[in-house]
Every structure is written in structure tokens, then in C-alpha cells.
Amino acid sequence: MDEGGFQAYEDEIQALEEEIRLLTEKYEDMRQESTFFSDEEILKSIKSFQRETQGDTKGHESPSDLKAQLESLETDLSFLMEFTGFHFTSHSKKTVEKTQNRTVQKHRLSGKCHSLSFQLEFQLLEMQNDEKISAVVSDLSIVMESREDSNVSKFVSRTEEHGDLLTFFRSLSTYAEWYEHRKHTFLHFK
Q1: What's the pLDDT tens digit per position in 89-126?
Q2: How far apart are CA 65 and CA 73, in angstroms?
Q3: In what order do the strands lie in the sheet with 86-98?
Q4: Model confidence over 6-62: pLDDT tens digits?
Q5: DSSP-based three-state secondary structure for 138
Q6: What is the pLDDT of residue 108?
Q7: For residues 64 and 33, what is the distance between their CA atoms, to the nearest angstrom?
Q8: Concatenated DSSP letters of 38-100
Q9: Which residues touch 172 (CB under 8 Å, ≥6 apart)?
Q10: Phi-psi bin for 139: left (phi > 0), alpha (psi -120 to 50), beta?
């Protein structure tokens, strides 16, 4: 067998090993999340769910109403994506720690804003005090496709330091929109 045949098999083996690793991580995440709840909490949730499904069957909307509601939500989502320019392609959430009044979750988010790709990874700490919930972003890591502009690099570094997601999304939206305008203008002059 030639070198190319062996390489194809090695590539396939590596791809399968990566898939196994990802599935193992997903399994561990699910198992870890389920261990945060006691048997008593799980039974309470099951009983609550059964009461809802048995007692509220009269109040449920018909399938056509639910379908119309889903279509309305999809239309709203489509409008927001067109309006803001953000198209999220993937999101994953992993619960790192969960206690009575504190939850730490690790989020991974990727997508595009107009034509600029981005990936975010951050931890979200949610704390509940006296019916008030506060959230803090930490360990923010941003990977962007367009790093040739030094101002963008500085902005990304500053945003990572401060953990300010709202400013990042607002600024990225504006920058990406004008990036598109500049790109079309330069193509026009070529």
C-alpha cells in the first residue's frame, strides 16, 4: 500500500479519536450536571412535571397554535439576525460548579457578524442573594478572524481584560458593518 493510503487511514483514525474524545467530554458534562441534584430534588422535579402534564392538559394550546407561535419566534429571530448582523453557529455550556446560591458555567460561543468570524469562551458566575441575581463574566477569551488591524487587536485585548461582553458585541457590530462597506468600496476601485 502506498504512503497516501496509510495517510488516509491515519487521518480517519485521528478523526475517530477526536470524535470519541468529544463524545466522552459531552458524556462527562451531562453526568456532572446530573450529580449536582440530589435524589430528592430529582423526584420533586418529576412530580412537579407530572402534575403539570396531568393537571394542565385542558389549558394546553393546540398544535396549530404552537406551530404558529414557533413560526412567529423564528421570524423574530430572523429579523434580529438581519438587524444586528449576528449569526450564531454554535453554543455550548458546561456547568463547572453549582451550589444553593452560586452557579459557575463555562460557555463557548461562535458565529459571524456580517462577514467577520468570532469565537468566545468565558465563565459566567451567577449569584443569588435575597431574590436578586447577579452575573459576572470572567476568563473571557476572544478569537477573531480579522486580526490584521492593530486597533482590533488592542480592542479585543482590552475587552478580554475587562470581560465586557456588551461592549464587545456593540463594537463588533459597528466595526463589522463598516468593514463590509470598506471591503465593497475597495473592490469597486480595483
Answers
A1: 888 889 888 888 889 999 999 988 888 888 999 999 99
A2: 12
A3: 86-98, 102-113, 116-129, 132-144
A4: 788 888 888 889 888 888 888 777 766 655 555 666 667 777 766 766 655 455 567
A5: strand
A6: 92
A7: 34
A8: -HHHHHHHHHHHHHHHHHTTTTPPPHHHHHHHHHHHHHHHHHHHHHH-EEEEEEEEEEEEE-S
A9: 113, 116, 118
A10: left
The CA–CA distances, whole Å, from 39 to 45, 96, 103, 150 equal 10, 20, 19, 53
Q: Which three cell numbers stand for residue 61?
A: 394550546
Cell of 108: 463557548
Within 10 angstroms of residue 23's Cβ, the number of other Cβ atoms is 10
For the chain, give every domain's residue range: 1-50, 85-189
Q: Cα dist. 169→42, 88, 96 in Å? A: 37, 12, 25
